[in-house]
Structure formats: C-alpha cells, structure tokens
Amino acid sequence: MPPLAEHTTETAADALEAAEVAVLPTGSTEQHGPALALGMDHLAARAFARTAADREDAVVLPTVPVGVSAHHRQFDGTLYVAEETFERYVRETLASLAEHGVRKAVVVNGHGGNSGALRRAARRLRAERTAFAPPWNWWESVDDLADELFDENGGHADAMESSLLWHLREDLVRADRLEAAAAGAGDGWGESVHGAPVGFDTIDFSESGAVGKPTQADPEKGERLFEAASEELHALLDWLAERPLSECWPREGRR
Amino acid sequence: MPPLAEHTTETAADALEAAEVAVLPTGSTEQHGPALALGMDHLAARAFARTAADREDAVVLPTVPVGVSAHHRQFDGTLYVAEETFERYVRETLASLAEHGVRKAVVVNGHGGNSGALRRAARRLRAERTAFAPPWNWWESVDDLADELFDENGGHADAMESSLLWHLREDLVRADRLEAAAAGAGDGWGESVHGAPVGFDTIDFSESGAVGKPTQADPEKGERLFEAASEELHALLDWLAERPLSECWPREGRR
Amino acid sequence: MPPLAEHTTETAADALEAAEVAVLPTGSTEQHGPALALGMDHLAARAFARTAADREDAVVLPTVPVGVSAHHRQFDGTLYVAEETFERYVRETLASLAEHGVRKAVVVNGHGGNSGALRRAARRLRAERTAFAPPWNWWESVDDLADELFDENGGHADAMESSLLWHLREDLVRADRLEAAAAGAGDGWGESVHGAPVGFDTIDFSESGAVGKPTQADPEKGERLFEAASEELHALLDWLAERPLSECWPREGRR
Amino acid sequence: MPPLAEHTTETAADALEAAEVAVLPTGSTEQHGPALALGMDHLAARAFARTAADREDAVVLPTVPVGVSAHHRQFDGTLYVAEETFERYVRETLASLAEHGVRKAVVVNGHGGNSGALRRAARRLRAERTAFAPPWNWWESVDDLADELFDENGGHADAMESSLLWHLREDLVRADRLEAAAAGAGDGWGESVHGAPVGFDTIDFSESGAVGKPTQADPEKGERLFEAASEELHALLDWLAERPLSECWPREGRR
Amino acid sequence: MPPLAEHTTETAADALEAAEVAVLPTGSTEQHGPALALGMDHLAARAFARTAADREDAVVLPTVPVGVSAHHRQFDGTLYVAEETFERYVRETLASLAEHGVRKAVVVNGHGGNSGALRRAARRLRAERTAFAPPWNWWESVDDLADELFDENGGHADAMESSLLWHLREDLVRADRLEAAAAGAGDGWGESVHGAPVGFDTIDFSESGAVGKPTQADPEKGERLFEAASEELHALLDWLAERPLSECWPREGRR
Amino acid sequence: MPPLAEHTTETAADALEAAEVAVLPTGSTEQHGPALALGMDHLAARAFARTAADREDAVVLPTVPVGVSAHHRQFDGTLYVAEETFERYVRETLASLAEHGVRKAVVVNGHGGNSGALRRAARRLRAERTAFAPPWNWWESVDDLADELFDENGGHADAMESSLLWHLREDLVRADRLEAAAAGAGDGWGESVHGAPVGFDTIDFSESGAVGKPTQADPEKGERLFEAASEELHALLDWLAERPLSECWPREGRR
C-alpha cells in the first residue's frame, strides 16, 4: 500500500484496517566522512522502508531524519537532538498510530547511535501495552554477508555503508574521496583502555570521520547488501504480522 | 546549494561557511479531510523550502514530518507528538546547526498547530543567543491573495490548501471527494461560545475534517499561491540574510 | 455565593454541592505603558470574576496574579513565570477543585500572553476527563463593541484596556501619561516581515510599552465594555452550567 | 510605597531603584476546620505583607493564593498544586523581579505546608546568585507570645490562627463553630509511631480539620499576635535591607 | 532472614512471601566535623537496619549511601545528589519491591537532610497505593533518652551522633578531634533572624561542621542509644507488620 | 587510602588533595538465577573497587547498590530504578566529588544493564567539563581469559559470574542449584529475529534467569578472573591518573 502520508483519512481508514504492521524509518543527518552524504542513515532507512510499500499488510510512516548524533558534532554539518528528545519523538509517533489500531511496528533504523533510545522506546511502548515495536538495524541483519564481502572492522562510513549508498544514490557518494576517508579512518568503533570505553566522540578515534575500510566499497556489493537485508526485513515483517498481539506483551512474574 | 543532507561533511564545511541562513521545513501527518493526503502540511513545507535550493546563501535542512496534531486524532491516519516534544526536536536541531556557525534560520511551516511550539522554540533560541529562527507559515504570507481567490473562512483542508496540493502533487488530491469534504466542513476554525473557545478537537466543529470551502479549489490558483508565497519567502530570506546577527538578539532592559 | 476563600470547609461543602461551575481569574503583573498599573490584567480578571458572586451556581476561586509575561521583561516592574509553570499552576488548581465535584470552570483571563498555556491546560484537563475549563479572554467577547468605540488596532495598554481600568480603578490610571503612552505606542501587536513574526518582545515594536491608541480611552466607554463583557461572561456561565458533563468530554474516533 | 501592582512601569522604575527588599506573600486556600475561612493562610500573609507598604525600602508583590495543601484534600474546598509547581511559581516570580535589580526578598508565608518548597526555592535562588529570599512564617516569629497566650500544642486552625483571623477579618470567623472545631481537633500535628511519622494527611489525625485548642481564640489576642509578628517582620526587613548583597551569597569551600 | 541481596531469586520468593515489611536503610556521605567519619549516617542506618535480620517478617534491602547533603558541600568529602534524584531513587526502589508483594516498609534513615524527600516519597507511594513506607529517623525515636544523656541543642555530629558511632565503629571516631569539633560547633541547627531561617548551608552557622556538644560523647551512651532506638524500631516493625494493608491507604474525602 | 566514607572531612581534605582518581562501584540487586545471590553485581563491583584501597592516588566511593534492572523484574527479589534515575544518581554523585577537586573517576560496574546510563553520565560530565568518568565493566576487560576458561556464550549468571562470586563469597553461591540454573538457561543474551531484538525481558529468553553455562563455574577460575580483571583495573587507574585533565575534555570542532 502507499505510504501513510499519501493516503487521505478515508483511504487510511481501510489501509490501517488491513495493516498488520507499521514501518517507521529513522536515521540521522550527520558526518559520514569525506565521501558520503550527511543523509546516509535516513536515506538508507527510507530505502529499506519503502520496499514494504509492496505489501498489503504493512504501512510505511514518514522518515525521522535527525537523530542521536552528538558524538559526531565536531564534524561539519552534523545535526542532532538529545537522546530523550529522539526517544519521545519516535515513541509518541508510534503511540499515535496505535490509536488507529496498528500496534505492531518495525523501526527501520539506519543509525547505530539511535539504538539505545529505540530500545527504550520499544520497552516502554511494550510495558504500557501500547505497541510492540522492535528496532531493526539493517547492518545487523547481514553480518555474515558483510564479513564475506569486506575485510574490515567497521562501524561508520565504512565499506559497508559506502557500498549501500553507492547502490542507492550514486550521486551522493564522492568516490574520489574514499581514499581520504580510508586514510583518516579509525580501525574500529570507539577506543578502549583496559576494558573501559574512553572515546566518547568520533573525533577521539577517527580523523576523517570514517571507521573501517571505505576503499573496499563497491556498488554491486551495495546491491547485494540491499537485497539481502531487504529479505531479512520482509522475513521480520512476515514474522511480526503473524504474531498475535497477545503474545507480544510482557510476561507476568509470579505475583 | 544542495540540501544539507546531500553534502558530505567536507562540502558542508564550505556550504555552511557561505550560508547566511538555514531553512527548516516542518509540517505534520494528519487528516486533511476525504480529499487531501495526510502528508499535506509537510509536503507543502518541503516544497517551499526546496525553492531555497537555488540560493547560495541558504541551506535547506531535512523535513520534520510529524507535528502537533493531537486535535485531529479522532480522524484515521493522524500522527502526532506532544507539543513539548515537537518544540524540543526543532529547537535542538537548530541549535546543533548553530554550532557550525549558521545562526539565522527560517522555519518553513505547513501546519498551524505547530505555531505555538515554533514561537516558543524561536523565543528560547533567541533568548539564549543560540539562533534567530522565526517561523513562517506559508498561508499567512498570502492572506490578500487568498481573499481574492476564494470566498471562504477556512483554516484546514480548505480551498487554499487543496489548491496548493493540487498544484504540487496532483496525485495526492482526490478531486472526486472535494464535494464530500465541503459537505461536512466546518464554517470556521474552532467553536466559540460568548468569546470562549470550546471546540478543542477538530471533530467538535467539522464532520469531514475540513474547514472552509474545498470545492473552490483549483490547481491554477494553487500555482498562484505557490508563486506568491515563494516570493514572500525569498524576500524574507533576503531580509534575514542581510540582517546582522547582532541586531537579532533581544534588547536589554534598563538594568 | 461568596468567593471560595471566604467559605469554611463546612459551608464550602454545601456551596460546592450547589455549584455547577467555577470561575478562576488569571492575569499578570506586567508593564502596561506609562499610564496603566502593572496589575491591570489580574485586576480586570478579578473584577469580571467577582460579578459571578451574584450567582448561586458559580464559585469564584482566588486570582492567579503572575503569568506568562517574559516578552515584557525589559520594562520595569514586569513579573513572569515560565509558560509551563503557569500552565501547571492553573491546571493543578482546577484539578484539585474537581476532586470536590466541580468539574466545569471558566478561566476568566486578563492577559493575552496566558492564552496558549490556558488552552493547553484546558485540553489536558478535558483529555484526562478531569474538568472542562475553557479560557475566556474578556476582550475577545466584545470585539464588535470595541470596534464601535475605538479606532485602533490595539493589543496592549490600548484605549480598550485603559478605558476598562479607568472605569474599574480610576486611581490606577495616570491620565496625564496617556499621551506619552500613545506617542511611543506600536501600531499593532507584534512585527511581521513577509509573513514571519520577528518581534518576539514588546520592546521590539513599542517604545512606550503600549500598542494601540491609548488617548482614546474614556471611563464611560470602560463602563460599557465592562457591562457588555460581563453580560457575555454570564451568558457563557449559563451555557456551561446547563451543559451536561457527559457532553463536555472529547469525542471518540472510530477505534 | 504602594504595592508593585499599583505602580506603572514608570513609577516602578523609581520604586525598584529605591527598594532594598521585596515582600512576596504566599499562602493557601485550604480547609481550616469548621470555623475559619479557607483563605486564612493567604489572607494572613497578605495582611502582614501590606504592613510593609509603609516603608520606602520595600516593595510588596501580589499574593500567591494556592499552595502545597494536598494533605488537606479530603476536606471540602481545599485547593492545591504540586510542591514542585508551587516552588517554581515562587522562584520564577522572584527571579523575574531580580532582573529589575531587587535581589533581596522576604517570602511572607502563611502556610506551613509551603515551607519545604520555599526553602528549596530560596536555596536555589541563592546558589545561582539570583536572589536571597528567606521565607518567614509568621507564627514562628512569635512562639513565646503564643505560649504565653494559649495553652495548646497546635498547628492548624488552632487558637493562634483563629485569633489572628478574628482580628483581621472578623467576618471570616464563625465563632459559633469553634466548639465543633475543638471537639474534633487533633492534639498535635501529625501522628507518630515509635518515632516514625505515619499520619500523612490531616484526616489521619483530626476529625474536624483543626489541630489545637480553637476555643481559646480571642480577637484581642489576635491583635497582639499581629502586632508582635509585624514587629518581627519589620525587624527582619531592616536587617535584610542593611545586609550587603555580597554577604548574602553562599560561602566558598576550600576549592 | 538474611538481607535481600544475599538471597537467590528462589529463596527470595519464599522470603518475600513470608515478609510483612521491608527495611530500607538510607543515609549520606557527608562531613561530620573533624572527629566523625563521612559515612556516619549511612553506617548508622545500616546498623539499625541489620538488627531486623533477626526477624522472619522483615527483609532488609541494600543501603542507599549518598543523599541530600548539598548544604554540607563546602566541607571536604561531602557527596550529594539533588533532592529529587534521591527521592526517585528511594521511591522507585520501594516500588520495584512492591511488585514482589511486599508493600509495607520502614525507611531507616540516618540523615536529617533526607527527611523532606523521604516524606514526599512516602506520600506518593501511599497516594498511588503502591506501598506504605514511613521514614524513621533513629534520633527522633529517642529524644527523651538523648535529653537525659546530653546537655546539648545538637543536630549534627553532636554528642548523640558521636556516641552512636563510637559504639558502632570505634575506628571511625577520632576522639582526639572531638575538642576541635566542639570548639567550632554551632549552638543549634541553622540560623534564624526574627523568625526567618537565613542559614542555608552548614558553613553559615558552624566553623567545624558540627552542631552541638561533641565532647559529651561516650561509647557507652552510644550503646544505650543504639539499644533504645533499636527497640523503638522493632516496636514500629511489629506495629506495621500487624497493620492490615487496607488501613494503610489514604482515606477518602466526601466525594 | 581508606574508602572516602571512612575519612573525616579533615583527613578527606588531604586524601582528596592526593587523589588523582576516584572509583565508584555500581551494580544491581537483581535475580541471578537459582544459584547466585541477588547482590552479585554490586558485590562484585565493590570487591574490585576495594582493591584500589591499596593505592595512594585513588579514593573509593560508596557502592550504588540498585540499578537498571527492570528487564529482570519478573523474577523474585529484583529491585530496580528507572534508567534516568540511576544516571542522575551516579552523575550527581560524581559531580559533587568534582567540587572537591577530584575530576577523574572510573565507574567500576558489575551490571551490564547499567551501561547505557553510565555512558550517558560520562558523556555529559565530560561535555560540561565537570569530570572524566569512563565506566569499566569487569567482564569486558577479561574477554580472552573468559574464552579460555569457559565454553559458553553467556551474559548473565553464567559460568563467568558464578565463578567470580564463588571466589569472592562462597556463602552466596548455591552450588547445588547450578544444574537448575543451567537447565533453564538461555543460549545467549536476548532474542533476535532477522536482526531485530525482540526479547526485551530476561524471561523472554531464559527460564531459570541465567544465560550461559553455569555448571562450568569453578572458584579457582573465579580467582583467576578476579586477579586478571583487577590487574586491568589497576592498569586503567594508572593510565587515568597520569592523563592530564586537559586531555580528557572533548575536542573542539572547526568552529
């Protein structure tokens, strides 16, 4: 069915009646090194979400474009809101949808920094029996494929992300800056000293803003990632669509 | 210049250096009667904002798609967040941009229900000398033209909004439902008894969700509205771009 | 019946049993130009509220004297609290009254800056089915009369307000400063540039603190305003007293 | 000087220049047993505050009429706001005054339940170096006299309060209900079991709402209390007016 | 029964079934003058709480070690959290226990500064019918004995506290600094001017950090205090264990 | 040096002068399956923290015993506070210490559920330049050793935790219930469906409350873990003690 925003309230009434599950894309607008566009994460989320437009049992909500990115703030162009603000924005949006009867959702997320807030939102929506809305990070669904395609310990603006964007929006990848991205990239996300995380901002462990091996990027690999992750997403939507709502709520303890 | 989300952090550095003013589109996803798409307000805001992409002194931010629409919640498909949540989301986004040196902005707004929150956001950003970011409601810039074009006391999903969307996205207007919209429309926004507002939800004073005379809608009138309001927006951007930041801050009192 | 504060808990029991509706006066203590006393708005609200003491179906609550006036802060003597603080103070006061069985109220308001907060308070009290408490701004109930009496595009410390205070408390109007008030007055409330509000503080658009034509003030006109608005208030109280509580609550949507 | 609310912004400018200290009356609207009016506490606070109108170095602010009285809520007519709301309302009012240069204040308080909030407000205003604003509970300034006049272990609507109101507003004391007040009165404030307070609401330890010996009330004793406490208040105002602001701020620790 | 933290979830199931009442020790880590350890208050609370380990009807929770001590912050080593933070920490801990069926508790408190927050926590837990959890300040249960043992108007790090700690943890009392503590001690808690509290920080009225007569301290007196107060605590636990939960909730008003 | 709570304010003055770094133990009181005590996590944190008492450059703060454990709430005995409450409690405690000049700290944490809150606390303390306080999860510092000692994909009440507690507090391990713990244990932490986390509470993926292979537990392995992790902690303390404070603060961006 078309995205929710393209329905009128009348056609939405039918669509929401038919929908088993909603899809809410969330991302960020933040530095992705010298080669990738700032919108990488919300564009990726939107692209995955839109594949659900083929389904009659899923309704796609508008994209939340700015997220939890304060740790990238030293790099030009990064936008961010507080973790609590993002959590509320997502939670309240899903709660308003639940009033129309759609109480299962997948939050299709493109930005790792959003994860904590999305889990909290999901927990609270579930605890209050408003909605069951697990977050889905596209890259976590295709770990194995990524390991096969790339030899990197990435995390941000890496070969994986670069490939995906190259596939989705070639115009938003500056291939001639992948070298620079790689040259200043961190080896892995964060910085740890004797087990303690001590790198709180990206600038603490990456000069270019990237972490990983951006030069391994390739649009065909991007296509494979997109196809594989989309398949996982649809399998998740199938699973969720079939799951009775009553099994989604928290279990009771002994008392 | 291209929208911020399409820049890399490197090109954003130059663009933000050149930019005098930012443009943040905000709207809603809410019922607009049986004829107009739920996304009306954020699509309109985005369309106006994108006209600023022609300017070298303005940078366009991503669109905030869900707003303060609880009063439409009884109509299917309406999404909303709390007024405070929306205010924070907008304010923090603009504050994060200000860290990159762009401290003047226009919030191009498509939804009247957002106005209170946007004014509060603007006041606080100004009071804290973070940014000067007045909201701009497109319909308020073309009052006279609207009076000339339509004979309505509108306010929501009226001839004015319907015409604009017809011009911008013909596919999102169900012309065959304009009659129904009009038949159940309220005569004016809200309901007042002896000077007191007593209609707090749209459903209190409109059966179809519309207020005004939707059947007067016409795509050519929509084009005229779009052109005229865009002109006003650009005049506003010119004015703001030239205004020294020092004149934007609050004046001091006597002590 | 006497104001609530003059009842004992015993006589209040009977009075609250008899009362159909409460009246809560709210205003501000803020600059009103060189001619009018700072207490203008709460004194006006109190004066209107006290006319309800004649009724057996209405109970008058104490006056809330400080409101949402930060935009007047550059003028000496202005007191203010945050919008949220004012909203809570009013909302919780009305909620505490509702525990005693009086769940309909009119907030008789003397200050325009309080309006947003009062509407939010009313919405939330209604949404939670605690109370139905529309705000009533005295000047909005007598638009037509004001147009007849004065030739101004006022808004603050104007001929309308000056006349009312002159009637109510002659000692609090410095008639010899009405000229000065007029000389430095703004032409209309706020300042707008191409449809965007850019005057966030009164000092941005008024030198004297007044907006309108204070020299048109006249105590007899003030008396007419007071009588006419009081009549409207009582008509509103009649309407509300007769309205069944069950019709005051929000309507349900389809689901 | 006249109360602040009776000044215009022009005369306030001079008055605030001359003022060394502000006086903010705070109280409550809550049950005071069958004999005393609900407004007892804010009426008392206002009466004490108004004695400061004789001074050229003190400016009297409007009265805050509803306070922290949830523990009286089971008795008809009691109004209340949350402790945090009351604290904010008082704190922000005083902070707005401080912007005009008056940074020392006495909060003349008539209700014991407000004390915790007032102390927190005072601590925070002091810690942030906004204002020095100690609360003053009238009854605490005349302990010895009360012991001399009455043989009670009072606390609420007792002989002390009844006498004061009798003196101030004879019309608001129902002398014929003092017996009933006494008959159902608690012996002392609260209820303690082996050192733990277990009476959280007044109804837990008083049937009539009073605590003490209301029948010992006498308007002449009320006059003596009023005179004696007023004297203490003025001595406090003298002390505070003379205290340099620099000595009002918190002392530094070693680092 | 053993403290809760020493149970497994299995043995806790039985223990919580058997328990009628919980004991939550709260204190502070704050200056206690030159002779007493900073942990005085939480160590005392823990010691009293642990005496309840003998009972089969009481379960002892872990100790909350940092409290509301900002007023001691100028003295080295003082830790503190905001009053609201402490209140939440205690309240939520007790609410989580209530989910396991134990809804009566005594908060065994060692620090006077925590009292306001503990009362608010208790009121709210009671109002929401989550738990009945009165605070118990050990020193308030043995007033008479203290008057008999010491000739002081104490309040902090005084003979009473010093004696108790001497009894409990001799190693944490520097007897050779009791003189210094006494030499710089305040005469009574706080500072009052004409009935107004004007000493908001301990440093305002005590040079050494102590208030009272520390040199009267004696470990044998400490033992007597400990025994007497423990007896009171157990009497309170008996009383509470026997009190039906239904009698613990707030009483209803007339409506 | 002795723990902070055992110092007087005088000896604390010297100790805090000498201290380069603070150690704050945090944990939880929550179900750890049928074999381990509820206090596991705060007891472990305390044990590690206490090893720092040997150092002259480190001061050990009291243990925070209740944490972010709502996801264990269905198992008897679990206590918890909200994530925000825990974050505030920790952050404010560290900020109060910073006032005494110790602005570097390690939060020695025993409970994985606390991690998000601890990172946020650390980020904010750093962003405000109050303190640099990275969290340290003991198990993350000895990954390799754990892989060597155990063949499990654990996470909670597993062989790793069981071994440690067996070493530290043999009396708090019910070795005869390790079988039961293992029988009902989950295979790995959480539950994932096509990349989405859908197990929000422990009870969703573990019957006994444990995750891992508890029967592989062994006190000697616990000793090795304790020694190895303590070594890592001390290496971290060395590193932090030597790091200049100026290098701890966030780096600036370009503007």
Question: In words, what does this structure look like?
Answer:
Six copies of one chain form a homohexamer. In chain A, strand 5 (192-193) and strand 6 (196-197) form a beta hairpin. Chain A contains eight helices and six strands, in the order αβαβαβαβαααββα. Chain A has one domain (4-247): Creatininase (Rossmann fold, 3-Layer(aba) Sandwich). By secondary structure, chain A is of the alpha/beta class. In chain A, 38% of the residues lie in helices and 8% in strands. In chain A, the strands form two sheets. The first copy, chain A, has a four-stranded parallel β-sheet with strand order 2-1-3-4. At the C-D interface, helix 1 and helix 3 of C face helix 1 and helix 3 of D.
Which of globular, elongated, flat, extended, rod-shaped describes the shape of chain A? globular
Structural class of chain A: alpha/beta
The most extensive interface between chains reads: A-B, 56 and 56 residues
The number of strands of chain A is 6
Question: Which assembly state applies to the chains in this document?
Answer: homohexamer
Helix content of chain A: 25-40%
CATH superfamily of chain A: Creatininase
Strand order of the largest sheet of chain A: 2-1-3-4
Annotated CATH architecture of chain A: 3-Layer(aba) Sandwich
